[in-house]
Amino acid sequence: MKAPVHKPSPKPYHHGNLREAVIETAARMADAEGIQALSLRQVAQKLQVSHTAPYHHFKNKAELIAAIADAGLSRLEAELKAACERSAEAPPREQLRALGMAYIRFAQAHPHYFRVMFRPELFKEIPVSETEPPDRSFLVLIDVLQRHVGETGAPSSHVLNLALFAWSTVHGLASLWIDGSLADTPPYVTQTLDDLANRVMDQFEQCL
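RESULT FIELD:
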């Protein structure tokens, strides 16, 4: 008689950093399988914890999606601020280029966050963060542009228009790249993401 086969039981709730693990795992699952297919139960199964464990941190799927967006925005803000610090001694024009490149590289490195961060319809009933404004990464760009505009003598009202133009341009490139829309771009147009990003930044700088 065969010995009974025992299936491994889910790990107990005690997990080193369950909230962050749930957010990271859910972001990757949503990217791979689609946001509609995401569920807290599936995330728990992936992490091999009790199916009730994620509910200690998130009441429902909407709260989890909002947490993914908030985590992504925080990471992006940190990347942009780090880019500013690295280029602190450079002219504002070079700081803008550094910001644009940091934004695109963030999207390339973290597409699972990037695809959720800018879809407010997924979590419109849930505040993205109770302590930080959702557009905090945009404010980093505004700050650099204000310093640049101050040097050129252009009116301050010019800052918002430039910021929207810069964000739209860089965000569009990042989205096209991670979604594979540029996969068939002829090699004589671009060879690498950095090359294409530099071309976009060159065009933007002509508008300053």
